[in-house]
Structure formats: structure tokens, C-alpha cells
Amino acid sequence: MGEPGTKDLLSLEELEASVAMRTGRKHTLSILVENKPGVLTRIAGLFARRGFNIDTLTVGPTDDDRISRITLTLDGAVHPIDQVTKQLHKLVNVLKIRDLDPQDTVARELALFKVAVDGVQRAEVMQICEIFRGKVVDVTKRSLTIEVTGTTDKIEAFERMVRPFGLVEMMRTGEIAIARGRGET
Amino acid sequence: MRAVDAVMECLKAEGVEVVFGYPGGANLPTYDAFVDAGIRHVLVRHEQGGGHAAEGYARATGKVGVALGTSGPGATNLVTAITDAMMDSTPVVFLTGQVRTELLGTDGFQEADILGITMPIVKHSFLIQHPNEIPRAIHEAFHIARTGRPGPVVVDIPTDLSRADIDYQPVTDVRLPGYQPTREGNQKQIRQAAKALASARRPVIYAGGGVISANASEELIALVRSDRFPVTCTLMGLGAYPAPDPQWLGMLGMHGTRTANYAIDEADLVCCVGARFDDRVTGKLSEFAPRAKFIHIDVDPAEISKNVPAHIPIVGDAKQVLTKLVAEYRALEPDPSRLEEWWQRIDAWRERHPLRYEDSADREIKPQFMIEALYEATGGDAIITSDVGQHQMWAAQYYHFKRPRQWINSGGLGTMGFGLPAAIGAQVGRPDETVVCISGDGSFQMNVQELATCANEGIPVKVFIMNNGYLGMVRQWQELFWDRRYSHVDMGGYPDFVKLAEAYGCTGLRFEDKTTLVDDMKAALATEGPVIVDVRVTQEENVFPMIAPGAPARDMVG
Ligand SMILES: Cc1ncc(C[n+]2csc(CCOP(=O)(O)OP(=O)(O)O)c2C)c(N)n1
Fold it and tell me: Which of B23, B88, B124, B403 places its Cα 20 to 30 Å from the Cα of B233?
């Protein structure tokens, strides 16, 4: 009989730990919820209470007006994702959760950038805008407002490019994501 | 029909026998409906008491308890009971009145956002927005409260909606697409668990309150006895396995037995059923059962691998899973002799470390003796409810519970003031049983107003106050961990519990002599109606053994 301190483990071949593992990558959760009073509060409250940090969150209607879709992203290096999804599943108004595989997902974000520009810089910024397939949506003598859609990476790259010119403000929607292929997300 | 009358119909359809409540402006329609409804209503003296009574009822009977309060302060008074029910997975439906819909959001008189306030502490909640929704919401509330992992559900009904006329059609189904608790348990996983149990040399079965919620005690006993498995229960699980039994190791955790805690510490396999690896059980988490693999059976998937990673997770109803597990295990025909060495070790601990205390040499009543005397006086058969503190731990240690639903305490939240109202609920639900509340001189004062409920309704609970003159458990921590710098734990000798009992129309007694205690208790138990006994015990006795908070189980003291 082992004394305290000795490791004498059970040998059972198929014992596999289903540990609450941290995956180390970004996760995009696509959640279908019933449009019931307080549903967003329930989700936000759950995250706050359990100490889960949401990176981005978007909410919008679906083709069924009784149901909304919430897309949220969080960091799998910080949070045990299976614990997050299990807790979400306990909410009665949550119908379905998909932890989207980045490989099989198209994810997009929309951002608006207001950049301070004068004469010379204007052309330069517009050039960058073109490279990023952005769209100028408002112009004044001293500013340009540009709309960019794309992946988070692309939007962050654009931000890095225009920031030196003087970024007055920036707004981002957070990601929405849809599964590739014919199947439903 | 008025929506409130439909509410009554729904309650009857759900088999509700009794509601614990308190009226006010926003639930006047409901109270009007009670006049003709033919459902028993127990008027408590504080909504918190009503909430705990509904919990006590639910825990004693296995049915869903119902508590009622008005809007605003009535609803906020329910908050502690709702949290308590959430922490201990107790099925209770809380019906709250709400201000008229036109006043919602305007800080109207007695408006409180009870849905918002209770969101983190409910299994689910409904805010009624249309009177036609009411019947369905009530049934769905009961369904959610009782199924899966049970818990509290709040239904908040604005007063104008409850008066509205609706076309009531009995509801026979629930439509909850987002709520489908798993019941069966994965057969492959169950087989794995059986194999693990069959090859384990130092297994321990660790059972919690979930076994009781699932009415799975018989199945637990079958598993334990399908071999010579050692078994321990959490504070919430006491009674799930009969305590006077050779395979029983005693309670697990902070004030559990050394035997149970050492066995877990050295186990190679821990089979956890309906428990959640709470910090009061594990002590230092990283050193909890350091050599063990874990089988974790729970109806709530979120509990699995939350605190301790499970090697064999099984999501399902304990009753169903255990039934299958026993069958799978028996089929393997494991060799019971492999456990012999393990039992030798366990028996040695048992011999060396029984629960013990130093009895007084004179007539002084030691608190542990008080519980032993109560065990004797009740033949070990009473339903025991408890408050929170030292008396609770001694009750858990020395009243050897033999059946499920015999021990009703506030485990997860540790709510002082739980005991008396819970006893009321238990007694109402089980009128033929002896229901005893073990309380402390501190805790008892937290819902003492419910004595009036007992007197009024003729609810014959017997309360034994373990009166040590202190907030004993806090005093113990100050003694052990804060250099005996006592700060605000002396109760100052008030009130006179005998006079207080009498003022409330109950019988009040005081016991101070150990030598006659058992007979005195028997006499108190035989007294008709509610009886409150002030039992004077040793003032500065400590609960041992003990795992200091955050310490590993191996380092138990005392
Ligand atoms: C509502 C509430 N407030 C405070 C506490 C903290 N607390 C835990 S045990 C305890 C002392 C209880 O004293 P008493 O009821 O006299 O029981 P004893 O420990 O003396 O047996 C206190 C204050 C609590 N558990 N619940």
C-alpha cells in the first residue's frame, strides 16, 4: 500500500482525461437564443459572474423573428471553453451553441475609421483605403471617414496603417461568423 | 376566468398541496383567488421564512415547493431563499407579484426589478407580459424546477395581468426547445466506469445531494454493496447511504471524519455521484485525491470537470446511471479480495480516529453529547433540519442519518435562519413524522418570527437550541485562526428563549443537566404542539476534526 506521496495510478488503457482545457486560441461562439425578456442580460450576467471575458459580441435578428443570433468571441488561452459553453447551455433560452472552427468559418467585421487628414495626406490615406478595399463614406476638409469590412486581422492591419495619420475615432461592430458550405451554422 | 384563478388551476394540476406566502398590494388578486381555490396557504411571518419553508417542504417530500410574495420588499425578502435553493438544487417555484405593467420601469411604488435581481440565482425566471402566457409559464416553471438539476424558478406577474380575464385551457405540454436535460447516461462511459471500478484497488464512492434529489439512494446502496466499496457522503448527501453500516466511512470534507478524508486522499479511484467538488469538501484543490482517477456522474454537464477534471464523465440522472452501472459492474465479476488490503488500511484509520470528544465530568452538557442524546431520544428516526454553525456540524457528525430526506440543512449558502422555517415546511409536507430543528442561539433569532406561524397553524415542530452563548462557529475561527481575539461573537445572554417561546404561543423549556437529558428530550418530543428547548451547553467547545480552509485533507487537525 502506497504511503501518502506515492503515485500509484490505476492502469486502464482507455482512460482519457476530458480535462477543462484551455485551447490557446480565439474562439467564435455562434449562439441561437429565444427572444425572451432578459435573454441578453442572462448571457452577459453569466459571463461577468463566472469571470469570462468577452472580446466581441454582436446580436442580430435571424430569419425567424422569435430567434436571435449572438456571435461572440473569446480567448481560449484564458478561458476553459467547454465550461463556457456548458454554462451557456444551462440557460433555458439558449437554443443552440456552435463553437465555430476557424478553418470552416467565414467571419467578418465592419469598422468605421475617422482619420484626420490635410491635403497631402489625403491622397496617401485614400490609397491605403483602396488597397484594403475600403470605402470613403464621409469627407470634410480635415477628415476622411472610411468603412472597412473584413476579418479582424484585416481591420487591425488597416488601423495600424492609418493610425499615424491621426485617428480621430474608430468604431467596430464585432465579428459575425457563418459556417462554410451548405450546412447551417 | 381571471388569470389568477387559472394560476390556482395550474397549481392544482401540478399537485400543489400547500403554498407558503405573504400578501401585499401587488398580489392581492392572488390572495383573492385563494379564498375559493381549495389550496392550503400557510401565512408565514416573513417572506424569507416562506421561501425556506417551501425549501424544507421540497426537500422532505421530493415535490416542488411553492413560495409567494408581493412586489418590491416582498420579492427582495425572498432573495436569500432563492439563492439558497439555487446553491442546494432545491426545486421551488417562487411567485412574485409585480407592479402594474404601466408602472414598470418608472420606480413605481413597491417596484423592484426582481427578475434582474435574481437572474444570477435562479435556474430560470419568467416575466409575464401577457395574461394568456400565465398558465404555460406556471407549468414550465414547475417542469424546469423539478427536472434535470432541480432549482428555483421565479415567475413575476404584474398585478393588472393577474386580474385580466383569459380563456383558460389546461396546458398539457411544455415547449422548451432550449431545455432538454440528459437523463440516460452514455452506455459506453458507464461500461468504462464499471471497468475502472473493477480494476481499482483503492476505490471510494463519494456521494452528494444529487443522489437524494434523484431519489437514487437504493441504487447507490446497490452499487456500494455490489462489492465492498467504501462510501462517504457530503454534508448535502447525508442519509443517501445509511450511516450505521460497515461500509460507511462517515462524512467527507472540512468537518468530516479522518477516515473518509484519508481514504479519499489515498484512493486510486474516486467515483463521485451527484456532488460537485465544493471547496468545503476538497480542501486544497490541487491536493485533493492526488492519486485518483475520477468518475463523475452528474445530471448537470457544467459540473463535470469544473473543479476537478473527470477521467470518466457521465452526464445523466443518478438513478438511471447507477442502475446501469451496477449491472455492468456485476457482469464483470470482479475479485472482491483485491479490496482486502484497502479495508485493512481503512479499518486501521477507523480504529485510530473515531469521532470523539471529551465528555464532561459533571452535569454540564457537551454539544456533541446533546446530539447523541437527541439521537437516542428520537430513536434516530426524526427528520432533522438545522441552522448554520457548530451545531450544524455536530448534528451532521453525531446524528447518524439512515435514510434520504431525513437531513435538511443549508449546505451551499450556509444560511443562518434556515432551520426553523425549513422545519415548518418539512412538517407540513410530512405531518406524521417527528420534525426536529437543531439550531444555535444566533441562527434561531434570524427567523424566530416563524414561531407565530407554528402556533397559529398548529405545526408541532420541536426546536432544540444549542445555546453556547456565542456565534460559536465564528468564535471557533477567531480562536483557531485569529489568536483568540474574540470580536463581536458574544450573544450577551439574550433573549430568554423560554419566555420568547411562550410569547409566541409555543411551549418553552430549558435543559441544563446531562444526566436527565435523554428523558427530558423524550418528554419535550412527546409534548403536543411546537416546543422550543433552550439547551445550555459548554460555551467554548470546538468542532473537530477539521481541515483548515485551503489546507489539504491529509493535514486534518483535532
Ligand atoms: C445569514 C448569515 N450571516 C452570517 C453567517 C456567518 N456565520 C456562520 S456560522 C455563524 C455563527 C452561528 O452561530 P449560532 O447560530 O449560535 O451557532 P453555533 O455556531 O454557536 O452553533 C455565523 C455568524 C451566516 N452563515 N449566515
Answer: B124
